[in-house]
Amino acid sequence: MRDHSYMQRNTRAMVAMLFLGLAIFSGLYSTQAILPTFVKELGFTPTEAALTVSAATGALALCIVPLSILSERFGRGRLLLISAALATVLSFLVPIVGSNVIAIIAIRALQGAVLAGAPAVAMAWLSEELDENVLPRAMGLYIAGNTLGGLTGRLVPTGLLEFTGWRGALIGAAVVSAFFAVLFMVLLPKQRNFQPKQLHFKSEIRAMVNHWRTLEIGLLFVFAFLGMGAFVSMYNFITFRLIDRFGLPISLAGLVFLMYLAGTWSSARVGDAINKFGHGKTFIVSGLLFAIGVVLTLGPLPVLLVGMFIFTAGFFAAHSTASGWVGQVAATNRAEASSMYLFCYYAGSSAIGALSGLVFEFTSWAGFIVYISCFTVAVILIGLWLFKATAKKKETVAA
Fold first, then answer.
1. H helices then E strands: how many in the chain?
2. Where is the signal peptide (predicted)?
3. Fewest CB within a 10 Å sphere: which of 22, 137, 149, 218?
């Protein structure tokens, strides 16, 4: 009976986290698919339109660390529930603030700050509540939820643009996010292993900074910054390429976000690959796919679509591998390690995503791809170093 109850709780926790990913990330990226609409109908520049994404991810990055510290005192589950509830409310404000670019960017930044509570502690919640043999699969399902959330957050407004304006499209996306948030709130089990701590901001921040002294963890942080920056940059502007180069209407161009299903598939299965081949080999192969996919977007439309499929699968496989790897390498202060990883992840999305808008405006698509490829090559080099370092440690232990 205890085993059945234990398995049931694990399943419920994993499904709840799947819905959390769906809720949070459908809200976080709800404007990305309609960036060309902002440019065409509201007169935004591509850089201003991209800031509706970067403002949200940037605020999220800034708030991850303080919210993670607060979770040490008040509980992971409580923060997750509050974050999901407030994010649901704010998602309805974005389409009603008007067409002023500053107002939209400001509301999106506030939305990102509220959303930060979920990614700040979701991985720590899983690490504390689930056994190590269950954790890789649970982490993969959570990130699969992230990819599905990112997919619905893009496809829903794109599809609704066929029948309504940009405001109606964003309201529809908000309704979907709210539905997933409610399911998460109902399913999340109570935390059993959480032990509250006294709040010591200096010591918590010191613990996060100290993780950089472990080179393996530091390189995983660097991957999070560069990899997510490249990934968001590609998806920010791939619809512009499909519309301008291949003449697709925005409703068809938006279907490119179906490639997120490749990330859903790869992140949900990467746990098995890690168990079989190890973190290092899995990460290197994922990085190679990430890089190959970028180059293929230079080709004709069918090749471009194949490239986006490979690019997306490779990135999310690498991200799933790296996020779990951080928790494994960090013997202590795992919540702080996860928070720093996610800070780098969303800081890269914001900083590199914003910079990429300028690159896109002032260079050709080929030049843009060369720019993105610099980041993917860096990811491969990080993977090779980590693989060698891990192999050397195993040899030392064996000796």
1. 16, 0
2. none
3. 218
Q: One-letter amino acid identity for 109?
A: A
Say whether pLDDT at 203 is over 80: no
E-state strands within 113-218: none
- Domain-located, residue 194: no
Domain ranges, residue 255: 2-186+208-398
Nearest CA-CA partner of 125 in 68, 87, 63, 64 = 68
**398 Cβ contact partners less than 8 Å away, ≥ 6 residues apart:** none
State the average pLDDT over residues 174-192: 89
**Does residue 20 belong to any structural domain of this protein?**
yes
- What are the pLDDT digits (tens) for 8-17? 788 888 888 8
The pLDDT assigned to 3 comes to 65
Give the predicted TM-score (pTM) of the model: 0.81
Q: Are 60 and 119 spatial neighbours (Cβ–Cβ below 8 Å)?
A: yes
pLDDT at 398: 57
DSSP code of residue 188: P
Residue 389 belongs to some domain of the structure: yes
Going from the C-alpha of 34 to that of each of 11, 135, 247, 257, 315, the distances in angstroms are 35, 36, 16, 12, 23
